[in-house]
Amino acid sequence: MITRRSALGVAVATTGVGLTGAGLAPLVAAHMTAGPATGTAPTALAAAVEKFRRPMRLLPVKRPLGNTGRSDVYVMTMKPARAEILPGIQTDVLTYDGHFPGPVIRARTGRPVVIRQRNRLTVPTAVHLHGASVRPDSDGDPMDVIEPGADRVYHYPNRQSHAPLWFHDHAHHLEAENVYRGLSGSYLLTDDTERSLPLPAGRYEAVIALRDARFDEQGRLVYAMGDRGRNTILTNGVPYPYFEVAARKYRLRLLNASNQRRFELRLADGGPLVQIGSDGGLLPAPHTTDRVLMSAGERADVVVDFSRYPVGSSVVLKNTTGSGPVEEIGEVLRFDVVRTADDPSEIPARLRSLPPLPRPDVEREVALRMDEGGEHPGAYIDEKVYDPGRVDAAVRFGTSEIWTVTNANARAEHNFHMHLVQFRVLERGGRPPEPGETGLKDTVFLAPGETVRLQAVFDTYRGHYVYHCHMFEHGVRGMMATMHIR
User: How far from each other are the two terminal CA atoms of the chain, in whole angstroms?
Assistant: First the structure.
């Protein structure tokens, strides 16, 4: 476990170089394979990648080793590996079980999962199941780490309703670079409500993890704190792939696994996207739109009907927001319609019912702010830098609270993630939430100067849990706090 003293030591070490990445690099460099990536390395290598020449990888599904009668049991190893991200070049990455990105675990509500995580890296890690309701000792608290060479057993009771969860590293001061280099994966929790619906399934459902990256001339991943030059867009670990589809409906389980980047996704022809879910599972009703927005850590469950396109045609999924040249960040992947197929799937007019929110017991305000300007910006919640020894919010078990969260910056974007609970967005800027935010959420975007009101019920577990900006570099700089549910 990282102690308060060792955490402060890391903070001092990184602050001394302005948290630019140079200070963090020595902490994590030892677990990377020595030497340059193999293969040809022309100048502007990543920019020269020809789009839509390689297929989109389908993420592997992790199978349990066995069961205890009531729980499914997994063993997963965090280890360095090499992956062909750029064509013909092997790049050093950090992985779960050697996969970049990590595998998909499919779980069921009411069926617990037990995972033995084996850390075979040379830095501490902490595995956080993002969006899950779990006991504190299985939450992946930033200070509750697996030391190099050690194992840790995580217990996931899966008592909550269906949701597209994901898991990633959360060791404080290391999480940004560890996740950037590959430590993330998906965890799809389903239940009878979801399984009863005639939505696209099987080969017509795909997990699609999106993120950005930057490579040097040898094809190595370049990490620098707050880097705005991460302009190579990866889809399931492949830059600008194509995905062969049939002329029928597909369910796309989208995850923004970027450290900081926000995506605004559209079909190039302006065609409809039917959003059916978000972070906490299905929306009450489907929402037809021409764009889907996801900040770092958010998920979106979208159905696209490719029957409107003739066989032999293609349509590009575009990104229309964020920093970087449009020729690099403006296109994500291409869907190629290659055949016909029967389609018995449907999108029901009602997807689920959510219980009415109780009368709130407490209302509180939270302000997110980062220094704007200067070489070494600090980041704060309520003007405080994260201190793992401090409780910032005392929450009474069994109560419901409304949190009014404000981005106090004039230029910087943030988002807000709470551990343990899924919440409901009540208002955004004084207005009702957008249709895609009417379901359960665990991460919510805040534009500069924007305020979001949300409500959560704290009736599952007691203990210490963190809340923070899920732009990883902001959390590393201190934009994180602790709530104690008691």
Answer: 23
Residue 462's SS3 state is coil
| Tokens matching residue 245 | 């589809």
Judge whether 36 and 220 are in contact, CB under 8 Å.
yes
Check: CB of residue 287 under 8 Å from CB of residue 293: no
Q: How far apart are CA 277 and CA 441, in angstroms?
A: 10
In angstroms, rounded to a whole number, what is the distance separating the alpha carbons of residues 290 and 304? 11
Q: Tell me, which fold does domain 362-485 have in CATH?
A: Immunoglobulin-like (2.60.40)
Contact status, residue 117 vs residue 154, Cβ threshold 8 Å: yes
- What are the φ and ψ backbone dihedral angles of 48, each rounded to 5 degrees? -85, 0
Give the model confidence (pLDDT) of 366-410 as tens digits.
Answer: 999 999 987 789 999 999 999 999 999 999 999 999 999 999 999
Query: Which whole number is the average pLDDT over 421-428?
Result: 98
**Contact in structure between 85 and 99 (CB atoms under 8 Å):** no
State how far the Cα of 414 lies from the Cα of 293, in Å rounded to an integer.
Answer: 14
What is the full DSSP assignment across 170-206? --TTTHHHHHHTT-EEEEEEE-HHHHTS----GGGEE
DSSP 8-class letter at 150? -
Give the right CATH number for 4-36+53-195 from 2.10.109.10, 2.60.40.420, 2.40.33.20, 2.40.400.10: 2.60.40.420
pTM (two decimals): 0.92
Q: Which CATH class is domain 202-339?
A: mainly beta
| Domain 202-339 matches domain 362-485 at the CATH topology level | yes
Rounded average pLDDT over 12-40:
35
The counts of H helices and E strands in the chain are 6, 32
Band of pLDDT at residue 198, cut at 50, 70 and 90: very high
Domain boundaries, the chain: 4-36+53-195, 202-339, 362-485
More confident site: 44 or 260: 260
**Residue 428, beta-bridge partner list:** 431, 452
Whole-angstrom distance, CA of residue 289 vs CA of residue 302: 10
